[in-house]
Amino acid sequence: MPQKVALHTLGCKLNFSETSSIGNEFLIRGFDIVDFNRSLSSSEEKTDVYVFNTCTVTENAEKECRQLVRRALRQNPDAFIIVTGCYAQLRPEEISRINGVDVVLGSKEKFKLFSLVESFEKRNFSCIYVSPTEQLNDFGHAHSTDADNRTRAYFKIQDGCDYKCSFCTIPLARGKSRSLDPEQAISEFKTLINSGYKEIILTGVNVGDYGNSYNINLYELLLRMVDVPGKFRIRISSIEPNLLSDDIINLTAENEKMCNHFHIPLQSGSPKILKSMQRRYKVENYAELIHKAKSSIKDLGIGVDVIVGYPGETEEDFQKTYNLLKELPVSYLHVFTYSERPNTKAIGLKDKIDVYERRKRNNMLRILSEKKKYFFYQSMKGKELEVLFEFENAAGIIKGFSSNYVRVSNKFDEKLINEFTRIKITEASYNSCSGVVNPINENIELVA
Dmax over Cα atoms in the chain, in whole Å? Predict the structure, then answer.
């Protein structure tokens, strides 16, 4: 019987692309990949190896990692436990002290797993393989593979970050900004398209910084990608506001292969807090960018990252953030509660915000996000969206995303899987839209 492995990703879309590549290495070597959640709940899915690809953006992400490791070991005390990712890079000794962890792999070592780990036999001690941050100069290739069975592929084109945001540990965990060679990027992009993926999500720590060592920028790479033959679309996972150029906005407006959706971090709507965070734009610049993009691109969906409870954030500062987001034509928010991260500038700042107050502000913005999303979904009624439906059959329902990142549900029909389908939206709720199906592919014959 082949050994079984379960993989779990915490954190960003970049981590998802890397987890998939790690999973593919297990597939190549004859392992069966088991659904992680099933492995924790079903005795029939006894799993031999667990791989946790971790995040360190918040304290909660690290706490979740520790809890999941313990759950996996309760299910199978003999399981071989591998922990990698940003948390592993920054605090390997802390992870190695978790009872039952066998191997800790840093950001560089995750791509050398099988050269470092010769046997997956349970051991009585933890092995740590972590290079210093200054040695994180390799580019670990990563994209979706057969290991994660997706219709939408995550494709890593950039890694590391040269920014010095006061709250962030990612430059310490990932190293300096570096990019995938442009020729290799186009080659791997074509491979994903030829493999049947219909949506490619470009991932990285700072995607907009792509190409800084190759005399090429993200816009120029996108021009080459949209020129590749085929029916597909490209989504940028997240892009800093100072790097979202007019060229990228205009390309998105003019070319249907570009998703009409951006995720643009704000972090704070208070000029004072934004400056303390050492962000590279001003509040007024951000607002102008949102309005420009929204007026240029039809039905544009915009997501926003925002942090609450940063040191020195007064009630007035928070209200500035709240009021700005309330007025801006954005679609949804990703709200993060500030947590103290070791070795960051912000951890030494005074005027810490009470934890209860941080949670209160987080809740207020989450409610605002729900209202924004509901309003955006309601505005889609009567419009025709192009939806890419996914594999999962959830109680007779199939779900997918439109180009502008609207979640759309429909009665399950396997002919819709991984096909672009026009849906005229007739119903909208807080979580999804639904409507009348009009297939784009002439070969699809839908059941009534």
Answer: 64
Candidate CATH numbers 3.30.750.210, 3.30.720.10, 1.20.120.50, 2.30.30.240; the one for domain 150-259 = 3.30.750.210
For residues 335 and 369, is the Cβ–Cβ distance under 8 A? yes
Residue in the structure block whose two tokens are 């031999």: 48
Distances (CA, A) of 37 to 71, 90, 222, 394: 11, 27, 36, 16
pLDDT in tens, 221-239: 999 999 999 999 999 999 9
Q: Could you tell me the CA-to-CA distances from 425 to 249, 380, 403, 408 in Å, in that order?
A: 26, 6, 14, 9
Interatomic CA distance for residues 279 and 165, integer angstroms: 6
- Where does the pLDDT of residue 440 fall: very low under 50, low under 70, confident under 90, or very high at 90 and above? low
Q: Which helix (DSSP H) or strand (DSSP E) does residue 289 occupy?
A: helix 283-296
CATH 3.40.50.2000 fits 265-379, yes or no: no
The CATH number that domain 384-439 falls under is 2.40.50
For the segment 30-52, the average pLDDT, to the nearest whole number, is 88
Q: Which residues pair with 389 in a beta bridge?
A: 400
Which residues does 204 contact at the CB level (< 8 Å), separation at least 6? Answer: 14, 156, 157, 158, 159, 179, 210, 237
Write down the residue that tokens 């992680």 correspond to. Answer: 36
The DSSP H or E segment spanning 170 is helix 170-174
pLDDT score, position 57: 86
For residue 4, give the nearest of 101, 90, 72 by alpha carbon: 72
Query: Contact, 437 vs 415, CB < 8 A?
Result: no
pLDDT tens, residue by residue, 274-303: 999 999 999 999 999 999 999 999 999 999
